[in-house]
Amino acid sequence: MSTTLPARSTARSSSFLGTSIFGASSALRVHLMKAFGAIGCVVGAVLGLVILKVVGLIVVGLVGAVAGVFVGSATAASFSRRALDIVRSSVTAFEAEPAEEPRLFNLVESLSVVAGVSMPRVSVTAPEASPSGAMNVMVLVDPAGASDAEIVVTADLARGMSRIALEGVVATSMARIKSGHLEAQVEAAALTIEGPWFVTKRVRERIVHEANAAVDMFDIDVRACGYTRFPPGLAEAYEAMDAATTVTSAAPESCDSLWLASPRPTNGSRNDATAATSGSTVGQRDGERVTLAERIALLREI
């Protein structure tokens, strides 16, 4: 992010031998444990065969596999600790102060209590990164669990919506933080941005797909309405976004799934940044993206 400030809390902090090494359960961790474990097993088996003959092949091979699994897990944990900073550095925004956005801060503070999450940072996209009237919001969390979450809004979303509509958007952001899916999405975005040598393009694409396919934005909307107890407020917010524009260049395409709605210009209706899954409460098309209009229709039925 153009202005990267240190995290304010460690509410989800983890120890070196806890979450940061062995508890960082993710597709990346599983892949690296398998890959490094296999490499360690082969290298260990070869060394064991050369040094200790047949018995060494088995014993040293197993030792090599265990060492490879540990190295893979540690490598994944190290990347997870950097993932949030990698994504933040790609976003053109600045951290806002309560005096600059008092209404937004008031809603974020109150709804974070309702949702049971730590107060996230609040940032606003730079004027040059979003066209006039753009309304969208990005949500970030730390896959390693050590830093605060962050809500990044376009300036016109914060100032152009009614309080009740803005409350719905903030509630949706809290529901995303609470869902437990954003960690994998942020990690997947960081993988795409940095493209580390230890993860092939094919594996990166699979991790990105799995991270985004696991999210059901219909259910996120329903959870958000549970926080506000007023579905029409969120419907009003989506109507305002659909009538305006959700387009912004504040972040690279790899971060699209982190926005509430697609930040890319389209010829037709603007889509959610995340595809709905087959477990949704309405009859959406599995594997396809859903439009803001479809989400509004769901909210009108609640």
Structural description of this entry:
The protein has helices at 19-23, 27-88, 102-115, 155-160, 163-179, 182-194, 201-213, 217-228, 231-243, 292-301, and strands spanning 93-95, 121-125, 137-140, 150-153. By secondary structure, the protein is mainly α. The chain has 2 domains: 19-87; 92-301, Metalloproteases ("zincins"), catalytic domain (Zincin-like). Helix 2 crosses helix 6 (182-194) and helix 3 packs across helix 5 (163-179). The longest helix has 62 residues, at 27-88. The two termini are 38 Å apart. Mean pLDDT is 82; it is low at 1-24 and 275-287.
Show the helix and strand layout.
Layout: H1 19-23, H2 27-88, E1 93-95, H3 102-115, E2 121-125, E3 137-140, E4 150-153, H4 155-160, H5 163-179, H6 182-194, H7 201-213, H8 217-228, H9 231-243, H10 292-301
Task: Summarize this structure as a short list of keywords or feature phrases.
single chain; 5% strand; elongated; Zincin-like; mainly alpha; 2 domains; 302 residues; disordered N terminus
Provide a quick synopsis of the model.
With 302 residues, this protein is mostly helical. Helices cover 55% and strands 5% of the residues.
Strand count, sense and barrel status of the largest sheet are: 4 strands, mixed
CATH 2nd-level architecture of the largest domain: 2-Layer Sandwich
Q: How does the overall form come out from the CA principal axes? A: elongated
Q: Residue-averaged pLDDT, rounded?
A: 82
Low-confidence parts, pLDDT < 50 over ≥5 residues? 1-24, 275-287
What is the helix/strand order?
A: HHEHEEEHHHHHHH
- Numbering strands along the chain, what is their spatial order in the largest sheet? 1-2-4-3
Number of domains: 2
| CATH-defined superfamily of the largest domain | Metalloproteases ("zincins"), catalytic domain
Count of helical stretches? 10
